Amino acid sequence: MSALQIHKVLGVGKSEMVHGGPKPRIKTVDPFGKVVSLPPMRILSGIQPSGTLHLGNYFGMMKPALELQTQGEAYYFIANYHSMTSLFDAGQRRQNTLDVALDFLACGLDPKRTVLFRQSDVPEVTELAWLLSTITPMGLLERCHSYKDKLARGLAPSHGLFAYPVLMAADILIYDSNLVPVGRDQKQHVEVTRDIAIKFNQQYGEVFVIPEPQIRDEVAVVPGTDGQKMSKSYGNAIDLFGEEKATRKQIMSLVMDSRTPAEPKPDAEKNVAIQLLKLVAPAAVGQDYEDHLRAGGLGYGDLKKQLFASYWDYFAPARAQRAELAANPDYVEQVLRDGAARARAVARTVLKRARAASGIE
Ligand code: ADP
Ligand code: TRP
Q1: Which of 3, 103, 131, 280 has a 20 to 30 A CA-CA distance from 271?
Q2: 150 is catalytic
Q3: Does any ligand 2 atom lie closer than 6 A to the CB of residue 180?
Q4: For 222-237, what is the mean pLDDT?
């Protein structure tokens, strides 16, 4: 049984955690009645401050990650180094970084429990990325879909873009992470991380914990206004905390087919507005609209209006919370600084382990 499976069986990590430094151990009883001592499960994820967050980011990554806060020690960070591979405006990066922090806090990140920090406040991660890069086969990176997709979208093939997964591996490995909640498009990157960790361990001894991705199937890919995967770079996003008028416009621009309202739609479950409505409306409302669309007699305009209303209600508490936090930037900055100090203490011990094992010290 892997450490992660044991964690799953025992539900270890549900108690209040102490952060920073080596993992505290928790005494618990295994399924056979034996007392065992285990470190709590460490959960890690990151998001790039490369634009305004949207519903895909929220349901694909943030919500699952926030729900995991009580299951172990969660470390969530803003990947500002990574954003340098696709965003070249310094002011924008600074602004987006604070916005992402606000978004996470507004959506329920509990800074007493969860470590929230800026990637660059733990510069040790760039050193670990170098150590890892020396054993990373070129072929492993050449196969990455995300790299190929970014080139296809017109990004210049820089070294940073190519080495992106190595820095991501360092992000994950430097905190001894067990579980990495992400959307499906990041699964391959976590697999690359595993390959790199296994190779380093084979070369230099048991240095790294092997992480597992966690992907929620029901929200693996949230569709955008054109039916493709919602993405900041496809111009098809619905913002998480957009301004009322602009977001209504985004939702009313959802692309539908040309069937008349009266026509029955046997494929109602595939309709993008229905898929989104099911994420933000109470289950019975989503089902009602789907049934009505299937039977015929529901116009797309009415469906979109309901979607906007449900979206607006769903995020109303978080929106209010966000406005309060935005008026208090010093508090947000303090949360990020405290998070960095806690994260850095862990990163230092793991980097030391990797340096010692590889003969750097
Ligand atoms: P984008 O495609 O908008 O640039 P990112 O690549 O920055 O988004 O993704 C940040 C996180 O949000 C990742 O974990 C990713 O898997 C998740 N995510 C992004 N878009 C979607 C989507 N449409 N559906 C589900 N998850 C998504
Ligand atoms: N590559 C991720 C994305 O674009 C962001 C990221 C960077 C990340 N480092 C990470 C996610 C480590 C999880 C774990 O969404």
Answers
A1: 103
A2: yes
A3: yes
A4: 92
- Residue 142 burial by Cβ neighbours in a 10 Å radius (0-12, 13-18, 19+): exposed
Q: What is the whole-number distance in angstroms between the Cα of residue 347 and the centre of ligand 2?
A: 17
Residue among 117, 108, 36 at smallest CA distance from 75: 117
Asked if 41 and 71 touch (Cβ cutoff 8 Å), the reply is yes
User: Catalytic site residue 249?
Assistant: no
| CATH of 242-314 given 3.50.50.60, 3.40.50.1360, 1.10.240.10, 3.40.50.300 | 1.10.240.10
Residue 15 pLDDT level (bands cut at 50, 70, 90): very low
Domain boundaries, the chain: 42-222+338-357, 242-314
Do the Cβ atoms of 302 and 289 come closer than 8 Å?
Answer: no
Given a cut of 70, whether residue 25 has pLDDT beyond it is no
Q: Residue 182 Cα, ligand 2 centroid: separation in angstroms?
A: 8
172 CB within 6 A, ligand 2: yes
pLDDT in tens, 79-101: 999 999 999 999 999 999 999 99
Residue 186 Cβ contacting ligand 2 at under 6 Å: yes
Query: How are the residues of the chain apportioned to helix, strand and coil, as percentages rounded to the nearest 5?
Result: 55, 10, 35
Entry field: residues in the chain: 361
Give the Å distance between the CA of 29 and the centre of ligand 2. 34
Q: Read off the pLDDT of residues 291-330 as tens digits, 9 standing for 90 and up.
A: 999 999 999 999 999 999 999 999 999 999 999 999 999 9
* Given the residues 14, 63, 199, 229, the one annotated as active site: 229
Looking at ligand 1, which residue's alpha carbon is closest to its atom 13? 183
